[in-house]
Amino acid sequence: MIFNPDAECMEREARRKLQLAYLKNLVEKLYATVPFYRRKMDEAGIRPVDVRRLEDISRLPFTTKDDMRENYPHGLLACPKDRIVEVHMSSGTTGKPVVDEYTQHDINIWREVMARTLAGGGCTKDDIVQNCYGYGLFTGGPGAHYGAMTIGAEVLPMSSGNTARQLMVMQDFGSTMLTCTPSYALFMAEEAAAAGIDLHALPISKGCFGAEPWSENMRKEIESRFGMKAYDIYGLTEIVGPGVSFECEAQDGLHINEDFFYPEIIDPETGEPLPLGEKGELVFTTLTKEGTPLLRYRTRDITYFMPEQCSCGRTTLKMHRLFGRTDDMLIIRGVNVFPSQIEHALFEIEGTEPQYVIVVDRGATHLDDVELQVEVKQEFFSDETKGLESLRARIEGVMKSKLQISVKVKLVEPKTIERSLGKAQRVIDKRKI
Ligand code: DLL
User: In terms of residue numbers, what domain contains 411?
Assistant: First the structure.
């Protein structure tokens, strides 16, 4: 279902006109009201009148996560403080959180883009949405909640955790759609199996998953364990939360809500825009936000644009599912490796569970060592160690051939790797660099 065909299927040239009008407005407003942006534009030698075509955006300065932290909490506010009705933050591991402050208009945008997002995953007013993204400062819970309500579906605002209760509600209330992180979805499936609950016999038939990297093979795993269609949804607190882009029934790239969030792909080293279709760092400008609009925000997420027309009828630009983040990329003995590549390779190996942790360390030799801890299906632990040994060797071989790095594999018993209720932590980097 397409939630807003007028906007989502608009002729591309008409959308570009709209984007340009919004961009001009935004730049004028930021220059006039936010000292931070005025200073940055002055330093870059560009004035609002210089923005005449959409391509001129590449002359405007970037905004980074550090800029947001340095301006914590209200330094990037672009409207009177009393117009703010809601605030979200994401913590990250170091420093001050990044803050998104929403006016009522901004909440309305969020409702719209999340309605489009859930509709992309097949949500209609007849659905019962079990929302297990966390509620609170995190945007996942409230974002999916707004979207489901805007569609007119029924929402079960579960938040994450208490998996036994989640499964009870799923059965008793007949939830038809699930929203949570992909790692939590898998954990629920595992708990359901342990409790003897047949997920295939329940009405749950689709889900929108995101907030963390996941692979195509993990999608297949979730789909087969639940008997559902699993869709990838993307977003980040700074821009709006979830609702920036989403998959449709084609499950082939994520449609960007580009009438609200203007996307670019740049070379992360040079900051230069890359030709359409090349892989690089994703950058967004929020075209119509009032509270904390962002100019050319560097997400650190890596993807490429897929300019072809989608079979679903939407004309919005698609991005490939994320490859990883510039700051998550592991450089192992000089080879660039993303945790998602390891995950994808692991899923192809019979006998393993989709639970793993990557531990990177530097030994006495000062070279990077990678230990991949992988859970193994119970039957492998039952008697012979020969089976285990050959599985270990097989995984090491696959990693070597697919990633060009040597990985030491440690097989661990089922349920020994810590499960996450929200974003899973897959990498432990012990190197002191
Ligand atoms: O994770 C917003 C969100 C909530 C998205 C629910 C989707 C569903 P943050 O906590 O600010 O916001 O984290 C944003 O998470 O820059 C990506 O690196 C990563 N991320 C989000 N969605 C995906 C995805 C929310 N579908 C950061 N695939 C982003 C891979 C994702 N990574």
Answer: 330-432
Give the angle 308-143-301 at the CA atoms, nearest 5°.
50
Residues 188, 337: one domain? Answer: no
- The structure's pTM equals 0.90
Distance of CA 212 from the midpoint of ligand 1 (Å): 5
CA 31 to chain centre: 30
Residue 393 Cα to ligand 1 midpoint, Å, equals 34
Nearest to 78 by CA among 389, 294, 229: 294
Could you give the angle at the alpha carbon of 138 between the alpha carbons of 133 and 144, nearest 5°?
45
Side chain identity at residue 88, one-letter code: H
CA of 422 to the centre of ligand 1 (A): 11
For the domain that residue 407 is a member of, what is the CATH number? Answer: 3.30.300.30
Residue 348 Ramachandran class (φ > 0 left, ψ -120 to 50 alpha, else beta): alpha
* Residue 192 CB burial class (10 angstroms; 0-12, 13-18, ≥19): buried
Separation CA 209–CA 293 (nearest Å): 26
140 and 46 in a common domain: yes
Write the single-letter amino acid at 67. D
User: What are phi and psi for residue 244, nearest 5 degrees?
Assistant: -75, -45
Best substitution site from 322, 329, 341, 420 to test ligand 1's pocket, by max atoms within 8 Å of Cβ? Answer: 322
Identify the pLDDT of residue 94.
Answer: 60
Whether 214 and 256 map to the same domain: the answer is yes
Average pLDDT, integer, range 48-69 = 96
Distance of CA 241 to the CA centre of its chain: 9
Q: Please write the tens of the pLDDT for every residue from 297-310.
A: 999 999 999 999 99
Amino acid found at 389: E
What is the domain-level CATH number for residue 178? 3.40.50.12780
